[in-house]
Amino acid sequence: MPDELMALIFDVDGTLADTERDAHRVAFNRAFSGQGLDWHWSVERYGELLKVTGGKERIRHYMEQESLIPPVSGDPDVFVRRLHQDKTDAYVSLIGSGQVSLRPGIARLIKEAREQGVRLAIATTTTMDNVTVLLESTLGPDAPGWFEVIGAGDVVPYKKPAPDIYRYVLQKLDLEPRFCLAFEDSENGVLSARGAGLRTIVTANGYTLGHDFTSSELVLDHLGEEDQPCRVLGGHWTGRCLMDMQALRAVHAGAGTV
Ligand code: XBP
Ligand code: MG
Questions:
Q1: Whether 11 is catalytic
Q2: Which of 139, 96, 92, 144 is nearest to 121 (CA)?
């Protein structure tokens, strides 16, 4: 008997929506200029910086790389936290204005999972306010409540690629990893999910296409819609490429087709 698929656990950035290039990056740059800093993260530079997960950690890494010192005296950590709060404010207002949409298949799959009583959760590195505003602005004001657990940001000491955030979510769900499927877009995300013992489907994006996804079950360009089938980029899947619950159960069971 294969394990029953009881819960879907979603990453947020790059998986639910393409938020990095045109939302997080823009928000970081707005925070920098708002503080009078001449720092600017280009699309390309940001792609490199993404290997460091977490906004505060990314800012610290950039400052180290560029040998930058805070423009104010006092605790550098306080400076980073303030700058990052400005970034979160900028991100929330950007996403709240409805400029970012969900990736193909996400809304469809979430609806179907809810109809079938499949449990939903989120495991992300980003800040909780960012998750809430994205869910509300794309799926409606009730959407955050559809997710039984939202594991976000600093709730665990070590961010992805550490497995902590997935372990946290599994513990809150009170489920073993074999009953779940994770959705990720990046190598750091897959390492985190796999580290927690989860089977993982990857939907790659512009920033993550070259990543190593060998430990995932399946790599796709997206989850697919009726009029927009997905493409298989890695792993084994034959036949129609549309990740509905039937297809997910097959992937979870290790089958390459429905
Ligand atoms: C997402 C991230 C996040 C965001 C920034 O990684 O790395 O750090 O870029 O969010 P993943 P904050 O999709 O693997 O969870 O600035 O709120 O930290
Ligand atoms: Mg991601």
A1: yes
A2: 144
CA neighbor of 86 nearest in space, from 56, 122, 41, 110:
56
| Burial classification of residue 192, based on how many CB atoms lie within 10 Å of its CB (0-12 exposed, 13-18 middle, 19 or more buried) | buried
Which-ligand-closest: CA of 125?
Answer: 1
Across-strand partners of 133? none
Ligand 1 closest atom vs CA 15: 13
d(CA 115, CA 163): 29
> What would the pLDDT profile of 87-116 be if each residue is shown by its tens digit?
999 999 999 999 899 999 999 999 999 999
pLDDT tens digits for range 171-198: 999 999 999 999 999 999 999 999 999 9
Cα of 123 vs centre of ligand 2, distance in Å, is 9
The residue whose CA has the least distance to atom 11 of ligand 1 is: 125
Judged by its nearest atom, the ligand closest to the C-alpha of residue 183 is 2
Give residue 69 CA to ligand 2 midpoint distance, Å.
29
Q: How many CB atoms lie within 10 A of CB 206?
A: 11
